[in-house]
Amino acid sequence: MATATVKLPAFHPKQREVALDPTRFKVVTSGRRWGKTRLGAALCIMTAGKGGRAWWVAPTYKVSEVGWRLIHRMARQVPGAVIRQGDRMVTFPNGGEIQVRSADNPDSLRGEGLDFVVMDECAFIQEDAWLEALRPALSDRKGRAMFISTPKGRNWFWRLWQKCLDDQDHEWRGWQLPTADN
Questions:
Q1: Which among 13, 155, 105, 103 has a CA at the least distance from the CA of 117?
Q2: What is the H or E stretch that residue 27 is in?
């Protein structure tokens, strides 16, 4: 299945820049309504469209609904896609899949090998979800991650942002973007 069969939302120039950047770990901090969710959902669809396994992880089940609605809407366009509403999971005919998960219990995120993960509203997720569950799940497949959030003080999301400022660490890149870019 080629992603060309799915009508993805048009990206504004800064979304396109983030989407096309080859960096493994991307940190996007921006104002509300910039389009972080739309970008992340489209990248999940693109990953599954290539046969990969993507997860959308939000701080709570309720917050995950926003990402699920977009993923569900895009995935309905894929002939033969199986959408399991109750599990918030989509399986594509090529074996690619997307699952929307809650990080309210970080231990529940263990087990799967992943090609891509979006951590939505990352500043509101416990750091253990990344360090002990999601980061190891990306290891064997050399998977990628995108951390999207509005800032919340100097917590672990802020520390991820600091990694992006280190010119020596080429696996990390960050974008600080105003809502006005949308």
A1: 103
A2: strand 25-30
3-state secondary structure of 134: helix
Report the distance separating Cα 17 and Cα 165, nearest Å.
Answer: 18
Query: Strands of 89-91's sheet, edge to edge?
Result: 82-84, 89-91, 97-102, 53-58, 116-120, 144-149, 25-30, 172-177
Question: What is the average per-residue pLDDT within 33-49?
Answer: 91
Task: Take residue 161 and report the two structure tokens written for it.
Answer: 């942002």
Please calculate the CA angle 44-75-41 and round it to the nearest 5 degrees: 30
Q: Give pLDDT, residue 11.
A: 86
Structure tokens at 98: 């997307």
